């Protein structure tokens, strides 16, 4: 059946020629509107426009990587699963201080691979030096937040760079390993790494210093997660903080469409939903979720200043402030 | 000469009996006033009333101490000078998180003795457990701020407990060792410990993330300290942050009256002045004071809440929040 026959058939069924002009206009509007609607939704779907999915391609820059034995650990059992710690960061006066503090802590952990992912177009040289100096296995990435999200009321910080790290882990991570998101200003008791290391699907534990309840934790009955104790439900299925769970890489790779949405406050929930996770699959850690081994500490912000140094050209203050500028401490 | 002869002599000199009643009253007021003034100032001096010195005796409680080889360090050269790190702290939601983070970092440093001094009448059990678990050499003290200072406009926080630690170091520290003050929320690059270890008098370096200039640093010319680059001069001779210097213990013990005043913002200056220090004696570290190896980071405060838990008696949330109460995270 050609399109002319199809039109003739439609003419017969709807008796278009007998219709009033008004009815014809309404019908045309309905048909044209439906057509536009279908085109637009399909376009959004094709371009990745599910809630929180980016419409434009994201910029991802791989800077450097080292796969090596942690130089600070005397003996590393190569049968031990690797923990891939993902730390998103961005240029600000506290960046080098935070990453130095956290990176040094990670050198005490066996079989770790630290992925530092900057919200930036390029990798910062002081961070490259730090990663090289610490002697850890590491990967250094950069992925800037798409401009469109900077204009939102609640800005989804740290998503583009976590997504870049997620892609790296999916492509390079060992199946026996574990993925863990740890922010640069968090505080962690290194015993938590022992808790998460043998995760088979997704494991969870409490995170201290969160919101209204001063903690965010799974509610556990008979070693099963039955809900969440968190001051901000916000319609979330998984009311957890980013530092409150780890994911087995083999399990991660088996999922069809792993993602993290660009929706502030719903990054964790969106990510865990994309893993097709059920409450009953969650592995309970930290002594039945009764101990706190990680805290959502936040470091007070310092303004990024421009310093006037006319009177300090002949002393140490000139090279000192040059170093500070490289570290992003001043403009 | 008896007092009667003395009065007669005074009568003769001043011709008191010839004076008008008015003159006699004025003279009596002057003499009595001078007498009261001398008594009061002497009393303040006798009771320790120099500026910033406490009028009442301070409460100091020694809780526990362990002198041992750092269990995390494979080989410790016992000829290496010990670094005595003094960390004042106080009960608040972030306390255990901060001390866990800092304490773990210190386990990476050779020949270190950590003095945790609480602003409190008693030592907190979670801190005792932490110190025992870390495997460091340590001393745990408690010394509450005298009540009178809590009512001041600018409260001199962390003085009573630093003074208690200072006394402990003067009585127990090895002469070859070094004293260093490091707050629980500071961030430190552990290479700084190598810089300070061989200090002979007082050594100094820049501290990042301080005040108007984003740094506080000695100004160095020809490897000599000639002044300070600090946004808050405030009439201080030594414009430095508490984390910006280390002191040789032998040098400390040789000084007559080592003290730290209860004057907010002038603790460092008062302490260094009491060491009879001159600018020319200061040892310049951190590559001529051009590198930043310690930052005055500050952790955002969380409110200390009372949680209602009527609905959570049968799950993990009860023991979890009991633990949080012990850690000082909630009331």
TrEMBL record, chains A, B:
SUPFAM superfamilies tied to this protein: Nucleotide-diphospho-sugar transferases (SSF53448)
Keyword line: Glycoprotein, Golgi apparatus, Manganese, Membrane, Metal-binding, Signal-anchor, Transferase, Transmembrane, Transmembrane helix
Amino acids binding UDP-alpha-D-glucuronate: 88-90, 119, 157, 162, 183-185, 296-298
Superkingdom, natural source: Eukaryota
Membrane topology: Single-pass type II membrane protein
Cellular component terms per the entry's GO annotation: Golgi membrane
Coiled-coil segments: none
Enzyme class: transferase
Cofactor or coenzyme needed: Mn(2+)
Catalytic site positions: 268 (proton donor/acceptor)
GO molecular function: galactosylgalactosylxylosylprotein 3-beta-glucuronosyltransferase activity; metal ion binding
Binding-site residues for Mn(2+), renumbered to this chain: 185
Catalysed transformations (reactions): 3-O-(beta-D-galactosyl-(1->3)-beta-D-galactosyl-(1->4)-beta-D-xylosyl)-L-seryl-[protein] + UDP-alpha-D-glucuronate = 3-O-(beta-D-GlcA-(1->3)-beta-D-Gal-(1->3)-beta-D-Gal-(1->4)-beta-D-Xyl)-L-seryl-[protein] + UDP + H(+)
CDD domains attached to this UniProt entry: GlcAT-I
E.C. code: 2.4.1.135
GO BP: any one term: chondroitin sulfate proteoglycan biosynthetic process
Compartments reported by the entry: Golgi apparatus membrane
InterPro entries reported for this sequence: Glyco_trans_43, Nucleotide-diphossugar_trans
Pathway per the UniProt entry: Protein modification; protein glycosylation
Family to which this protein belongs: Belongs to the glycosyltransferase 43 family.
Protein name according to UniProt: Galactosylgalactosylxylosylprotein 3-beta-glucuronosyltransferase
Organism: Scylla paramamosain
